[in-house]
Design goal:
This protein is an alpha+beta fold and about 300 residues long. It folds into three domains: about 110 residues, no CATH class; about 60 residues, Dna Ligase, domain 1 (2-Layer Sandwich), CATH 3.30.1490.20; about 90 residues, D-amino Acid Aminotransferase, Chain A, domain 1 (2-Layer Sandwich), CATH 3.30.470.20. About 30% of the residues lie in helices and about 25% in strands. Strands 14-13-12-15-16 form a five-stranded antiparallel beta sheet. A four-stranded parallel beta sheet has the order 2-1-6-7, covered by helices on one side. Strands 8-11-9-10 form a four-stranded antiparallel beta sheet, covered by helices on one side. Strand 1, helix 1 and strand 2 form a beta-alpha-beta unit. The protein is globular and about 65 Å long. The chain starts with a strand and ends with a helix.
Length: about 300
Amino acid sequence: MILTVSVKDDLHARVVQHTAFCRGYRDFHIAECDQISGRQSLSWSSHGDAPNAILTAEGFSVPLSDVSLVWWRRTMARQQAWDNAVDDHQRRLVNTESRGAFGGIFAASYQGQWISLPEATSRAADKIFQLTVAREAGFRVPRTIVSQSRADVIEFARRVGRVIVKPMVGVPGPLMFTEYVDDPATIPEESFIACPAMYQEYIPGRRHVRLNCFGAEMYAALIETDNLDSRTDLNVPISRWAVPEDVARQVAAVLRKLNLRMGIIDIKLTPQGEPVWLEVNPQGQFLFLQPLLDEPLADYFLDFLLSCDKEV
């Protein structure tokens, strides 16, 4: 049995589940981690006198002992039943208690395969850590600082030229895209002190690679755009990109070091064709490329899940 942990109406979870059903595989369930509050969603007992079970989106109470593979897709969402609560303390209490119980039950009772381990997924999402690992694997990475100092960012821009800024983690809600910082000297000190941010040298070029790594298999798209963030406009030339052997080896080395069984990687090609590592999302979006490439990525991903499910 495969159990996907995600949020209500997550497109990726639903499409891959539908793909499984169409292929005759019925033991594919979804647990919506943002729907715990407001219903009897989980149970656990230290001595086995109550079932250790999770309520699925389909309304089944699934014992974790029956689950052989967990796709740990989206896990940090707020509880929708309490999202509009007037009392902020109550809302935070419901969210943290639901998240703690949900994660704790899996940690205590689940013994099967993970895509990928929760602790590896969480650590790999750290952009500072993954940059360090990618550089150790042989990738060129952008020169980067993380700072709250206006003076440091001004000096960084003087040394590297054009600078971009990106969030360290981001928050639920509208996407926060990478932006240019054309002249940090025009930005007030308060904006820098508010919280740390990641500042990087701008990598010139218009060829962006979105590389989907499902286990040992890699499927990549070349997105040709002048936009800084390739996600902002997909009405641009997009084609399949054959992953060179050296890039494949480096990507595999990064994911192995991060202990990830899958990863969605962003790479930018310089005008000279040199691949520059930007980041990996341990549970990134890939289905938007399926119609653009006319490639059955949902089937490829399901094949990956089923192959992992067969592992002992």
